[in-house]
Design goal:
The complex is a heterodimer of chains A (about 270) and B (about 325). Chain A has about 270 residues and is an alpha/beta fold. Helix content of chain A is about 30%, strand content about 30%. Chain A has helices spanning about 40-55, 70-75, 95-110, 130-140, 195-205, 210-215, 250-265; strands at about 5-10, 10-15, 20, 25-30, 35, 55-65, 85, 115-120, 140-155, 160-165, 170-175, 180, 205-210, 230-235, 245. Chain B folds into 2 domains: about 10-195, HUPs (Rossmann fold, 3-Layer(aba) Sandwich); about 210-335, Rossmann fold. Chain B has helices spanning about 25-40, 55-60, 80-95, 105-120, 225-235, 245-250, 280-285, 315-335, and strands at about 10-15, 15, 20, 45-50, 65-70, 100, 120-125, 130, 135-145, 150-155, 160-165, 180-185, 195-205, 215-220, 240, 270-275, 290-295, 310. In chain B, helix 2 (about 55-60) links the parallel strand 4 and strand 5. Classes of the chains: A alpha/beta (about 270), B alpha/beta (about 325). At the A-B interface, helix 3, helix 4, strand 9, strand 10 and strand 11 of A face helix 3, helix 4, strand 7, strand 9 and strand 10 of B.
């Protein structure tokens, strides 16, 4: 293929602030919770579409998810992606990061001849950030995580990555194919093209692969492939606080606040 | 690596940058000393780099019973493929029971890759760590916006891996009388397998608000004007913390973000200006000694986490507060 064959791993996540723990069952209560596109995934899609605009090629979005989320998937596609592949099977459910990595890797291998795998830096629900570097290992690709900028040198077939490594800012180059995770907020994701979205809603039939297509063994998918278990949920401990209300005119409040701050400073 | 009854030892990966260990490495070693004693395990430090023997020595002085030291010029800078190869080799041979790393960008980069290579479970971004007496690691991870903590374990594979957020645990002070064995390992790295090229490296003096003594914090209620917040920080010699939206809007770099997706702080005093108190923010300020909050919404959740509460307009109160503080501080100087 001419240009870059890019796969972006994307995810729809529950809106954080609305999830509650059911006190009866001590389980997670997701009923009636709104979903959103995992925020850094939009930055990853934006990065992919920009690379396609510069160097040509194709952007395929890939997600492991239950059915029923097409509205979100079409929104992401309407940002400028070409295809969507959904990995959906009960056999993939309740996966921790290890089987998730292997399921996505199987999807990427089946798509074939991929130059670049992009992903958001982490998911807002799991929040592990384990999947992008795990994909690097499973696919035997080089990886760069926490990328702020990505460019491509077509002569050398290498990607140039700017990333914060925690102590400094580094610019590195890595060969094609690679896995790169994109940090949240590093670019401005474009709005979905409204007409394209409508067209997709009416006419697009995305590729759906189940485990019949991926043929993953039990130890590489879903619950049976997971290593970690949730022992229990505990309420985040809240410290006892004084709850003293400071009242008065703004002038008086400021005066009392200043005293309080100075008292508590040493 | 699968389940391995012979796996033993609590291992800590000592992350370094330009020949100096990161603070998180010593924090992890400090906490793991306690865990190793509880589980009756040895505490082992894994030090990788080029010319880093002094770090191995310091690891002993800070609590490690033994150190595996891997030195190679290809480990001068963090490159995923070299570090993963070297770490995998040492781990495969010596079979740790637990492997603990910092939840820094590079710590999470190598941990995610190693866990898949070792075929084991990885609990990421832990905020509280414990072990059973039988050596089962229990990592607490903030879930669902920080309102609950999930206790996660991995019983079926070894090593049990975790990355731990910086700024949560205390390092053990250096004790030069402590003794420990340093094993020097040759990782047998070969440049021809190196795929990453370093083009440019720039040390950035980022801020570390996890160690702030005083914190002034701002949220959406500031209305996008952060000048008063900055002035107050300067006046009180305080660090600045913000909620996630202010980072998303580009008003502050990410290292100022407080909360379950940002930094956990534990200052003497935290003052919240125009912060409503979403769970993922309050999860990060819970350890503050005194919390003062100013918000115009009497029902704001932030007040549930506050010692002193002001219901009012931050944009009116902040300039007045700056004025009063200036006057009072001036008076103190004069006395």
């Amino acid at each position: 293929m001419k240009g870059l064959n890019i796969v972006v791993c994307v995810k729809v996540v529950p809106k954080n602030s609305e999830i509650r723990i059911d006190p009866e069952t001590n389980g997670v209560d997701r009923r009636g919770v709104d979903s959103i596109i995992n925020p850094p995934d939009k930055n990853a899609v934006e990065a992919a579409v920009r690379l396609k605009e510069l160097y040509g090629g194709k952007v395929t979005l890939l997600s492991m998810a239950p059915p029923g989320l097409d509205d979100f998937f079409h929104q992401m596609m309407a940002m400028g992606a070409d295809e969507f592949v959904l990995l959906s099977d009960r056999a993939f459910a309740l996966a921790d990061s290890y089987p998730t990595v292997h399921t996505l890797a199987a999807g990427i291998r089946k798509i074939g001849k991929v130059d670049l795998v992009l992903a958001g830096v982490e998911s807002a629900d799991g929040g592990t950030g384990n999947v992008p570097p795990g994909l690097g290992e499973a696919l035997e690709f080089t990886q760069a995580t926490y990328a702020e900028e990505i460019d491509y040198n077509s002569e050398e077939k290498r990607f140039i990555i700017h990333r914060m490594n925690g102590s400094g800012h580094e610019v590195i180059s890595i060969p094609s194919p690679s896995v790169v995770s994109i940090e949240l907020g590093v670019n401005s994701p474009r709005f979905p093209d409204f007409r394209r979205k409508l067209d997709l809603d009416e006419n697009y039939k995305m590729t759906v692969w189940s485990n019949k297509d991926l043929e993953l063994p039990e130890d590489k998918r879903g619950l049976s492939g997971s290593f970690t278990t949730v022992e229990e949920f505990v309420e985040a401990k809240k410290r006892e606080r004084k709850h003293e209300r400071i009242e008065g005119t703004p002038e008086e409040i400021a005066d009392k606040l200043a005293d309080l701050i100075l008292e508590n400073m040493n | 690596m699968g389940k391995d009854k012979k796996a033993k030892g609590i291992w800590v990966f000592i992350e370094q940058f330009e020949h100096a260990a990161l603070d998180i490495s010593w924090e992890l070693l400090g906490k793991s000393r306690e865990l190793a004693d509880k589980a009756g395990e040895k505490l082992i430090a894994l030090v990788m780099g080029d010319n880093v023997e002094h770090i191995a020595q310091e690891a002993v002085h800070r609590g490690a019973d033994e150190v595996f030291l891997v030195e190679d010029e290809l480990l001068e800078h963090y490159k995923c493929e070299n570090y993963t190869y070297a770490a995998y080799k040492v781990i495969k041979k010596n079979k740790p029971n637990q492997l603990i790393m910092g939840a820094t960008p590079n710590g999470r980069d190598i941990a995610g890759r190693l866990a898949v290579k070792l075929k084991t479970g990885l609990t990421a971004d832990v905020v509280s760590l414990d072990t059973t007496k039988d050596g089962i690691m229990l990592g607490q991870v903030p879930g669902f916006g920080g309102s609950v903590l999930a206790v996660i374990k991995c019983e079926v594979a070894r090593p049990q891996m975790a990355t731990v957020r910086p700024g949560i645990f205390e390092a053990i002070p250096i004790d030069k009388k402590r003794k420990g064995k340093i094993h020097k390992i040759d990782a047998d790295l070969d440049k021809k397998y190196e795929t990453t090229k370093l083009i440019k490296l720039q040390k950035v003096e980022g801020v570390d608000i996890s160690k702030a003594k005083r914190l002034v914090a701002g949220g959406r209620g500031l209305g996008g004007d952060v000048s008063a917040l900055k002035e107050l920080a300067e006046l009180l010699d305080a660090d600045i913390g913000v909620t996630r939206p202010l980072c998303d809007d580009g008003l502050f770099p990410r290292d100022h973000q407080v909360g379950s997706t940002g930094v956990t702080v534990k200052p003497e005093i935290t003052i919240n200006f125009g912060i409503s108190g979403a769970a993922h923010y309050t999860a990060g300020i819970n350890k503050s000694n005194t919390i003062i909050s100013i918000n115009n919404d009497p029902n704001a959740i932030i007040f549930e986490y506050s010692d002193y509460e002001v219901i009012g307009d931050v944009n009116k109160i902040m300039p007045l507060l700056i004025e009063k503080l200036k006057a009072k501080l001036m008076k103190e100087v004069k006395q």
